[in-house]
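4.2 Preliminary Data

To establish feasibility before requesting continued support, the project team ran the inverse folding procedure on a target of 165 residues. The structure was first converted into the token representation described in Section 3, and no sequence information of any kind was made available to the design step. The complete token record follows.
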């Protein structure tokens, strides 16, 4: 066999390998597409079975045992969605009433207004609510680092020493 024949044979072999690889990949792609369709159909079948379970038309234990955890997950999702709604509906608390207010309709009024523009009632001054002082916390000294710490501390927040009573 001549060198030229050997090169032609190697080129033909490479072409055959490339063609085989291309055809194998096409077949694998077709298989993958069919598997995707099977997965979609199984999902649809599962969705339909779940709807029948919800309607009380399926009682088989193995299907019910699969559907009940799904119900629990949906309940958890509902709880999270309700938490989201609650969070989204949060607003800043109103500032304490000070200045002028209508004693009749409780509308806040600018300081320069003497009468309520909505109901005509004479405006009154509102005093701010007194601030409530917090109860004093006992303070003790840490036996290790001598820092002042809250009296109810179990460990020193400064050095980490356990506080023994």
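Position-by-position output of the design step:
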């Amino acid at each position: 066999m001549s060198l030229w024949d050997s090169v032609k044979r190697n080129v033909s072999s490479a072409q055959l390998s490339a063609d085989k690889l291309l055809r194998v990949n096409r077949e694998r792609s077709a298989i993958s597409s069919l598997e995707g369709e099977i997965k979609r159909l199984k999902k649809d079948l599962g969705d339909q079975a779940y709807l029948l379970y919800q309607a009380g038309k399926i009682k088989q234990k193995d299907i019910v045992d699969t559907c009940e955890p799904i119900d629990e997950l949906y309940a958890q999702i509902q709880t999270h969605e309700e938490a989201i709604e609650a969070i989204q509906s949060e607003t800043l608390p109103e500032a304490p009433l000070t200045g002028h207010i209508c004693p009749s309709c409780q509308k806040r009024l600018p300081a320069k207004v003497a009468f309520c523009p909505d109901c005509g009632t004479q405006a009154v001054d509102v005093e701010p609510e007194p601030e409530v002082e917090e109860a004093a916390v006992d303070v003790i000294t840490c036996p290790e680092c001598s820092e002042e710490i809250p009296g109810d501390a179990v460990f020193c927040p400064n050095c980490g020493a356990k506080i023994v009573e």
